[in-house]
Amino acid sequence: MEPKTCVLVGAPVDSGKRRQGCLMGPDAYRTAGLAEVIEELGHSVRDIGNVTPKDERPAESSNAQVYDLPKNVAWTEALSEAAEAAAAEGFPIFLGGDHALSLGTVAGVAVHAKKADRPLFVLWLDAHTDYHTPLTTDSGHLHGTPLGYVTGREGFEAFPALPAMVPTENVCLIGLRSVDAAERAALQSTDMQAHDMRSIDERGIATPLKAFLKKVSDAGGMLHVSLDVDFLDPSIAPAVGTTVPGGATFREGHLVMEILCDSGLVTSLDLVELNPFLDERGRTAQLMVDLTASLLGRRVFDRPTQSF
């Protein structure tokens, strides 16, 4: 793998849901040695610290359940700018923070891709589709809306207008196992590629991933990967507020990252939904760091074992 300039962008977003704790995520990744691991693999690291949200302004939704809309809009504005700038400097890694951060990060890297005259593709590794809108969410939690926003669904009038959208045909979701009826209906009306854990059990995880990567390669695209802790089974990654049994195993997680590494197509990465308050002696943070290392060139057999 060619050496990369990895730009670490702290995104301590904790407003996408009511359960608090994700604001500690960026520092947990730093404490787990993310920068040091990346440098050991021959890449350079620039840590720009934590982004801060823009000033809040009044914002309302007709859905009374929507939680902390002004703060989520302020974060989206700030992270869109930060993501576009970081993508121009190198390989941005966004350290979350809950998944509402991707409202901004994906929007920002989409602008960068548009300026580079290349299509942006998104790989969503998650138990959930996150395809709701502020109008359709029953919980009101906006960490379940980023794919709806960046693909141009209606209901995001309070958010910044998108200079570049991600076509639904450029999105692939892997790891789904908690999708409500409204999301399922909305998803089925699109041409997104969605793979739940039953299909992974039946076909393996490499088959749909490689098919998507071929599509990215054939289009000369850039690839943003959004890795949610709950993509993984909670038995190995407990530090998330949205645990859903039946997630990816240790080997499946590393296999995905190794295949992505081999492809050479990934241009940006989200690490989201880590809640250190729910972790067990840092094991989830360490696993997410190890998965990032696999994406950046390390193989599992090179990794020393640890006890927790």
Question: What would you note in describing this structure?
Answer:
This protein is α/β, with parallel strands linked by helices. It has a single domain, classed as Arginase, Chain A (3-Layer(aba) Sandwich), CATH 3.40.800. 35% of the residues lie in helices and 16% in strands. It has 10 helices and 8 strands. It has an 8-stranded parallel beta sheet with strand order 2-1-3-8-7-4-5-6, with helices on both faces. Strand 5, helix 6 and strand 6 form a beta-alpha-beta unit. Helix 3 runs parallel beside helix 4. The longest helix has 21 residues. The chain is globular. The model has no long low-confidence stretch (mean pLDDT 95).
**The top level CATH class name:** Alpha Beta
Main sheet characteristics: 8 strands, parallel
Helix content: 25-40%
Unreliable parts: none
Q: What is the topological layout?
A:
Elements lengths: L4 E7 L13 H7 L2 H7 L3 E7 L18 H21 L1 E6 L5 H14 L4 E6 L20 H5 L20 E6 L4 H8 L4 E4 H7 L2 H13 L3 E7 L21 H14 L2 E7 L10 H13 L13
Parallel strand pairs: 1-2, 1-3, 3-8, 4-5, 4-7, 5-6, 7-8
Helix pairs in contact: 3-4, 8-9, 9-10
